Amino acid sequence: MLFVPSCGSKPQDGYFPSFDYHLMKNIFLIIIALWGISNGVSAQNRLYVHASAVGANNGSSWADAFENLQEALLSAQAGDEIWVAAGTYLPTADTNRDSSFSLPSGVKLYGGFVGTESSVDQRDWQANPTELSGDIGIPDDSTDNAYTILYLDNPDSLTVVDGFVFRFGNAGYLLNDRGATSPSRSGGAIYIMADWEAYATVINCRFERNSARNHGGAVYVNGAGSFATAPTIKGCIFERNTAGQDGGGVARVGNSDLERPDFIDCMFRENWGGVTGAGCIFKMPMWTVGWMCRVVRL
């Protein structure tokens, strides 16, 4: 406890003037409460993205939405939501194939908006497709596409990807100076790094025509050595994704101590794996369960 003498007085040895302890305690509690409220507000922002917005480009509303998804992702913190209007979004404006979107842990990323909604429930992600595309080079030429469209680094259970179409990611790096499980050779659409944890939810998404030289044409979960690798993929469609080695749709490496479904109500259609696991493959799974999923024409 810090004792402060009143102005103009000099305390005697071993003596400090009295003051109102209750008043000081109340002031202290009020300061703590205000600090907590301000932190709670700042940790629960909503950021808007609309490719054709013409406002202040600060993400504060639909009118002033960010035009570029990368800006919103760079501004987001754990607890934030990002609402993205229909349109096609590229991870870079140049041809750097190592470019990708990176979603911070604890952030909820929603697509499928018209650009007027005030609630997530008002959107229609099927009628208003929000596409994250890897086609950054010559249109329809996959050899110059981004290696991985979306990268997640140890996402916690509050991390959500909801209502997007992923197309044309191509983790097809040809040289051998990068590992087979690197984002340039595995996980064309989404790469989830899980050396600590991976509890993200991917829901209401379509994965079409993504590819990888090695593992996970659409999605690769790299959780080798981890016992907390348990992303949930729900209500998603995987169609015509390919992997040179395994897991044309999804390849997941790593264990989980959670007994819960990995896939819920998903469809795998016409995916291809060069060696095995055309639809999906799991390595080292403790609990691996699919619920109400369909595999069509492997």
CA radius of gyration: 24 Å
Mean pLDDT: 85
What does the largest sheet look like?
Answer: 8 strands, parallel
* Through-space gap between termini: 71 Å
Q: Give the count of helical stretches.
A: 2
How are the strands of the biggest sheet laid out side by side? 1-2-5-8-12-16-20-24
Summed up, the domain count is: 1
Report the portion of residues in β strands: 25-35%
Describe the structure.
By secondary structure, this protein is mainly beta. The chain has one domain. The protein has 2 helices and 25 strands. The chain has helices at residues 21-42, 69-75, and strands at 46-49, 81-85, 87-89, 101-103, 108-113, 130-133, 150-153, 160-162, 165-167, 170-171, 190-193, 201-203, 206-208, 211-212, 219-222, 232-234, 237-239, 242-243, 250-253, 263-264, 267-269, 272-273, 280-283, 290-291, 294-296. The strands form 4 sheets. An 8-stranded parallel beta sheet has the order 1-2-5-8-12-16-20-24, with helices on one face. A 7-stranded parallel beta sheet has the order 3-6-9-13-17-21-25, with no helix packed on it. The longest helix is centred in the N-terminal third of the chain and has 22 residues, at 21-42. The radius of gyration is 24 Å and the shape is globular. The chain starts with 20 loop residues before the first helix and ends with a strand. Residues 1-19, 21-25 and 27-43 have low confidence and may be disordered.
